[in-house]
Amino acid sequence: MADDGATIIIDAGSDTYKTGFVGQSSPHKIFPTILGNEKYHTLTGEEPNTYIGEEAQRKRGILSIRNPVQNGIITNFDDMETIWQHAFTNELEVVPEEHSVLLTEVSLNPKEKRERAAMIMFETFNIPSFYLAIQAVLSLYAIGLRSGTVLNSGHGITHIVPVYEGLSISHGFQRIQVTGYDLDTYLATLLLERGHSLNATADHEILQSTKEAVCFVSQDYEKTIGNPEEWKDFETTHELPDGKIIVVQSERFRIPEALFKPKLLGLEDPGIHEAIAKSISQCDIELRKLLMSNIVLSGGSTLFPGIVERLHKELDILMPPSNCYFILCFNADFSFKTNKLKSALHAKAKILAPEERKYLPWIGGSVLASLSTFQDMCISKAEYEEVGAFLVNRKFI
């Protein structure tokens, strides 16, 4: 239990809901951001039971499962309200009207979504104050920074967000369609070629745990994929929950390679290294050295062994350190034209990959809410009642 009145931090992702109290170093409760109703129920006219989180996951086979968060954005507020209520009452065991709430959001979250979230928090849960924070900014706060470039890649999103002095630079925002879910689906496809039939939705946890256990980022993918006779060196086994043993080889490095080569999934998007370079190149020239010096990895899809080294290698090719800036001009196919601009130093890329990066936005929220000035930064219940929900879009930029 938290101290009386402790601020509650909520980071509701497409895959997992992270929540807890200010001052904690990690989320107090983590559960799947899903709910579901029974597919089959008696003909008594009663409403089918609703199950949430872990219970919904366990009963998935008999439920119609819904996820109210898609690509990091709330798409069903009725379902989201149900999950919020569950988290307050059953997970944290609190009365929400006694606690301020810090809610995280993705960059460029639609204005109407922000206002609706505030409205529910104040009008349904009657909280005393509310703060809405961008996940990329919080990821920096978690490691003591206010400026940098954040690569946030999780189950439902892959975003690159440049941040300067706690403010996201919207014109530098980049989105890639390759997500953790897409990697799970790709793994299911490759395993099917080996005779293992797994469904990306129903067997989500199995695919995710397999991916996390065996996959790594190759430092020279073209060389490795071009020498099938060497794939045997990467062969390993993995035990599934039912005791079945599967053998994997090239799948180990082919899965995460899709982050660098989305074309493996049939997508025309740039790779994460290209999107980082493009994001930084679209920011003011005076900021680029700083943004290159603090590239922060956040989210579960950045946990692959070898990803830091590969990003260093690719970024050094795209944006080589020199005595001048390189302006990267992106063609329609995301190829590059490089033009020199006189003066100033172009910093070598420095990539920060904290061990706790899977929960970095939540941790940053805990850090922010610990500040003595935090309550002054929030919207109070009185302010909300006087001005209305649109205050969210004026106060939280």
TrEMBL record:
Pfam families: Actin. It comes from the Eukaryota. InterPro entries: Actin, Actin_CS, ATPase_NBD. GO terms for cellular component: dynactin complex. PANTHER family: ACTIN (PTHR11937). Belongs to the actin family. This is Centractin. The lineage of its organism: Eukaryota, Fungi, Fungi incertae sedis, Mucoromycota, Glomeromycotina.
